[in-house]
Amino acid sequence: MTFKLNIITVSLLAMSGSVVAANFGVGNANTESVNMDKYQCKRCVSATGYTGSVTLLTGYNSPEDAHAGNALSSDEEGVIAAISGDVRYLNDTGYKASMQAHQLGMDNGFANIKVGKSGLYELELDYQAIKTFEAGDVRSQLWQNDGMLTPSVYPNQFDLALQRENSAIGFSFGEGVYNTFVRFSQEEKTGHQSASFVAPSPTNFGLPVDSTTKQLDAGASLAGDNWLTELNYFGSYYSNNIDDLSLPYMNDVYSAAPDNQAHQLSISGQYQLDRTVMSGRLVTGRMIQDDSLIQVSGNPLQSWDGQIDTFDGRFAVTSMLNNRLRVGASVDHSKRDNKSSSWEFTQYSYNSLSGAFKQNVPQDIERSTYKLNASYRLASGYRVQAGFDRKEIDRSYSEREQTDENNLWAKLNISALDNVNINVKASHGVRGGSEYEVNELTSSEDNALMRKYYLADRTRNAVELKLNHSLLSWVSIDLTGRYAIDDYNATTIGLTESQDYGYDLNISVQLSKDISAYGFAGQQWIDSTQAGSQSFSSPDWQANIQDEFINLGTGISYSGLMEDKLTLGGDYLFSNSISDTYLDGSAVTNSALQYGDYFAYNHSVNMYANYALSPKMALKLSYQYERYYDTDGAQMGINTVPGLTTLGELNHDYNAHQVMLSFSYLLR
């Protein structure tokens, strides 16, 4: 039986005694886990004492592939068990407590405890476990032990998965016009992730992960009749327990992520004057990283004196000039001042040491955003909005040191029609800036004709339609359609055009008092064109990339069976993604006309039956199935390409099953 409870979890269970709870609407919680409709009081008002429910779960898990753990909350094969619930307590004097939990004992779950007195203080304890699975049973010919990567003919087997465990304690105190809070949290992250080094040939391996991030937040707020202000501090401290990695015949082939810390201090406020509201925020911060550097020939520094100072400011105002017209404006400014070490280093070319010296250049970034908008009510049920946004960015030591984006948009809202709401939005944006320079300082290895897509001139036109329609009292439809085209008209080599269009359709139906159903469908297409040069001169090949995504789903719930004791339901979800790349041009040989395609699809089925044993007890039997398949042309065997060592083909092709039986007890 799989029943994972660490020290933190056991402590939380001990503190809560025999009452443990779950919030089925938080995060990835299954909202169908317990249906209390048929055995809880619908007209009960808030009362003193204990209220809520406790749920015990047990079942059988058959994931077939570790990746299925992302959907099933556990990659373990065999019997699994967990506890969930949502319990609240209140007494006549205002003291209250709440305990929530979801699937404690599985790889993904959480627990939260709050105690305090209404309107005065509150103490909070929080625990959360999150595990993400990329691939299972990965094989590598490198064994890691205490920073040493040792080659072996016997492969090392592990999972590419990351486990995060976050525990926190917080306290808040306030009465009337003032409030204060302090919160400390710590996250432990362990597992393996894919990485690579060159020594002397490219080698992929499973990088061990073992790090700790501590977070300290504190703040205070003060409010008046028409104003409020806040002062907050946020501090983050990252510590990596994995040192630099070495091979038996070569030291420090892989540099570990350095320890670092970040601090922010912010002050914000809001003031209302009649029908005008003004708000502002100032934030100053500092990021520090001063770990030792790997010592190589030509490196003059023992440690990296890294420091980045940040400043952010915002001011916004909105005003109702009359009953029809509302106007608004805002200014945002942020500055990233890199004060890290700067030194002359020996430069390497592709094949050998060049002998030249070059100074590393810390990059500064400064952004300013200006927005103007207005909203006017033409008549009852008809409103038009328009606005202008401008963003200015300055980057030091960049191919393009200044870029500016101007965006003009308009929106029409119609709600005057019976059971219909229509929103139409159109926008036109242009990006330009200073002269694009490809020089020795920033990108001497780039083609002079190449333009990076986030720096290049661009014209964007977009339109969006949203429609909400209640056909009948028991049918509701939501439809969204969108289209956008980006034209990089000044780009010779790089991304030259991109089209992004799609739709989302949602339908909800109440067929009868006891039967409800829903369905949704969504598709997105992204078509891109880019040009390249194999000869490092003018374009001699072109790529057309076609990406397609689809999501479909439907579900039904049938209650009122067996004298209102039984509820049956089910959900079906389907998703599919496809990426095709087509190459053409004189530099492309027939054997390499296309890249390997990528596609993935997923079928997911969830069926359940809820049965009320009594007004306070219920049983639920559920079955979950997932069919997952993906293939990536970039994946290849461990030694398929001479001189390249990979982790193997990490594609997925599996069927996963989970059967779960849960017992729920209603406290009141």
Beta-strand percentage range: over 45%
Low-confidence stretches: 1-44, 349-354
Share in helix: under 10%
The major pleated sheet works out as: 26 strands, antiparallel, barrel
The coarse overall form would be globular
Number of strands: 30
User: Averaged pLDDT, please?
Assistant: 88
What is shown here, in short?
About 5% of the residues lie in helices and about 65% in strands. It is mainly beta.
Task: Write up this protein.
- It is a single chain.
- With 668 residues, the protein is mainly beta.
- Among the domains are: 268-362, no CATH class; 392-595, no CATH class.
- The protein is built from four helices and 30 strands.
- It has a 26-stranded antiparallel β-barrel.
- Strand 5 (121-145) and strand 6 form a beta hairpin.
- The radius of gyration is 29 Å and the shape is globular.
Keywords, separated by commas or semicolons:
single chain; about 675 residues; mainly beta; two-stranded antiparallel sheet; 30 strands; about 65% strand; disordered N terminus; signal
Task: Please specify the SSE layout and strand pairing.
Layout: H1 7-15, E1 49-62, H2 69-72, E2 78-90, E3 95-104, E4 109-117, E5 121-145, E6 148-175, E7 178-198, E8 202-223, E9 227-240, E10 245-247, E11 250-254, E12 260-273, E13 276-289, E14 306-320, E15 325-338, E16 344-348, E17 353-359, E18 365-379, E19 382-395, E20 402-414, E21 420-433, H3 440-443, E22 458-472, E23 475-487, E24 494-510, E25 515-532, E26 541-560, H4 561-564, E27 566-584, E28 598-612, E29 617-632, E30 653-666
Antiparallel strand pairs: 1-2, 1-30, 2-3, 3-4, 4-5, 5-6, 6-7, 7-8, 8-9, 9-12, 10-11, 12-13, 13-14, 14-15, 15-18, 16-17, 18-19, 19-20, 20-21, 21-22, 22-23, 23-24, 24-25, 25-26, 26-27, 27-28, 28-29, 29-30
Pfam family, one: MtrB_PioB
Keywords: Signal
Signal peptide: 1-21
